[in-house]
Amino acid sequence: MFKLSPELLKVESESEELDFEVEHFKEDVDYFKISIEAEKKIDFPEVTLSFFYPLLDIQTAWHPGAGRDKSLAADWEDGFAAKAASLAPVITFLSQNDQNRLTLAYSEAMETVRFKMGVNEESGCLNCRIILFSQPSKKRKHYQAVLRVDSREIPYYQSLKDVSAWYEELDGYKPAPVSAAAKEPMYSSWYSFHQNLKAAEIEKEARKAKEFGCEAVIVDDGWQTVDNNRGYAYCGDWEAAESRIPDMKKHVEKIHKMGLKYLLWYSVPFVGIHSKAWPRFKDKLLFYAEARDAGILDPRYPEVREYLVETYKTAVRDWNLDGLKLDFIDQFAYEKESELKVEPEMDIESLDQAVDRLMFNIRENLQQLNPEIMIEFRQKYIGPYMRKYGNIFRVNDCPGDAVTNRVGTIDLRLLAGETAVHSDMLMWDPEASAASAALQLLNVLFAVPQFSMKLSQLSEKHLAVAEFWLGFWKKYKEVLLEGKLKAFSPAHLYPLISSENDQQKIIAVYDKMLVQPGKNLPPELILVNATLNEELVLDLETEFKDKNLKIYNSQGKLMENKKINLEKGLHKIEVPPSSCLIFK
Length: 584
What we know:
Elements: E1 10-12, E2 18-26, E3 30-43, E4 47-54, E5 60-62, E6 80-82, E7 90-94, E8 100-106, E9 113-119, E10 125-132, E11 139-150, H1 156-169, E12 186-188, H2 190-193, H3 199-212, E13 216-219, H4 248-257, E14 261-267, E15 270-272, H5 278-281, E16 285-289, E17 294-297, H6 302-319, E18 323-327, H7 351-369, E19 374-378, E20 392-394, H8 402-416, E21 420-426, H9 434-442, E22 448-451, H10 460-475, H11 477-482, E23 484-488, E24 496-500, E25 504-509, E26 514-515, E27 524-529, E28 535-540, E29 544-552, E30 558-566, E31 569-574, E32 579-583
Parallel strand pairs: 12-13, 12-22, 13-14, 14-18, 18-19, 19-20, 20-21, 21-22, 25-27, 26-28
Antiparallel strand pairs: 1-4, 2-3, 3-11, 4-10, 5-7, 6-9, 7-8, 8-11, 9-10, 15-17, 16-17, 23-24, 24-25, 27-32, 28-31, 29-30, 29-32
Helix pairs in contact: 6-7, 9-10
């Protein structure tokens, strides 16, 4: 078997100002400590770590930004960049049967690291390159980081789980605490209201959401502006628009009296041209985004960081908020054609470090006000470094796209450890069949669901769908979120996912395929037919003797309740679309 060694790992730069050293040490996997030295403090030039790896039994590539494309790249493609506010420096190459072939993780997850890894046509090997200092950073003399290389013959999802645990143990990477409330279903105003918010209507939907099992409300964009153009020209002052929410404190109190938590949305980097804050900050921008009618604040200025931190502190304290949805953090960037200049008023020269300081200050200040504060981040700022500051990671916007929502939730789960992973907000067509509407919920079973339909306007059949499946989720929450998760065939968008503990095993099936529950099953087995197909085919490795089988349809109606005995082997079971089978 091929083993990477310090001799095969090249560290190169066009500059002659740098000296390199690579130390190799091995525990359960291989670690390579990269040391780079300069004689004096300089802006480090680009440095590349590279090696070739055999393309042996590798059919799929997974990384945090792959989404629905888990294909192998060619080595002339761009790859992906990871930093604190974007993705994570992790990639996994795996076989068709989900076995790890090569998992790489880099310890520097704050500053920009580019992964360019793909098939080299001439050699037929993987050409693996990690590019450092491709973006402006701070002046320095010393640099150290560790490359973790895992080629063990284990399932890829176990390899990624181990990567997540490794990051948690690194200095400065301890994840933020996760309150119990962060792992409860929530109601979001975004798809149901967009910017057309009214306090009374939010309260009406919140009351209905509580009846169905939601435990928090997220009020999104619109609370701070009377403009409905979906832009950000009025962002930056963060004062409640009186025509929408006349008294924010009383409004939050009403939601709290219903037994619900309250989270409020902020677009962190934007300051709009029509805001009162614009004259103050118009010269403290990374750039001006004409399409948004807003500037992107530059957090290297202490005044910018102080303003944002004080804004959130004041809101949490004065309005008694339980959490914040901090949006667009990945927009802290710069345009390629512009230079990232350092001005005398700045106290930090590195943009990545400035974002880190900002997020640290936000977390520290808000946690002092409320130790159980919830902070939601959205793909793609979901890496191990951001776990320090956010305790909810949500799938990127994919309205009505159940498959993308499924892929996003599982991609997040694989690296997120105990951080709460939330679906994108659920929505469906009011005329959809019950089974079709249920697919939106079934595709995000292994994450915390967020609803964004006007529940007060749902038809009876859709209310039944929401009530049954949310009740199902809450009943089995422990095994769904805390059980041993296995996500199969990422190249095929996870057509089968399971999670189990000592008492239950849940298998969700998302395509027409053979279902193999396995051996040594716990007392209760739940199969979820997350398709519109009307049969499941089981391949049993152990007999089911004197089991009770209950089958529920998409609206929670009990269709069958009977004793069964099934021998080992194949069994075809007729089931309703979007249904569940409970063997006990």
